Amino acid sequence: KFRAECLNTHWFLSLDDAREKMEEWRRDYNEVRPHSAIGNRPPITALSGT
User: Fold this and answer.
1) 9-22 burial string, b = 16+ CB within 10 Å, else e?
2) Residue partners of 19: CB distance under 8 A and separation at least 6
3) Residue 35: strand, helix, or coil
4) Which of 5, 9, 33, 36 is 20 to 30 A from residue 23's alpha carbon, by CA?
5) Left (φ > 0), alpha (ψ -120 to 50) or beta: where does 27 sit?
């Protein structure tokens, strides 16, 4: 997922730019996007038990 959705779709202008874009992707993936394997909830909600 990470390669296909982040690395292969962004141009990085600097190391700081790469870090920012990767962190944005990671937060979206773990805190916003639903995952079918855990009941269409974001992983962060599965960890917190809500």
Assistant:
1) eeeeeeeeeeeebe
2) none
3) strand
4) 36
5) alpha
Q: What is the pLDDT of residues 2-37, one digit of tens each?
A: 999 899 999 999 999 999 999 999 999 998 998 888
The tokens describing 31, both together, are: 């805190």
Distance CA 23, CA 5 (A): 13
Dig out the tokens for 16 from the structure.
């700081």
Token couple for 7? 């690395």
Residues in contact with 10: Cβ distance below 8 Å, sequence separation at least 6, in sequence order: 21
| Alpha helices, H only, 1-50 | 2, 15-27, 43-48
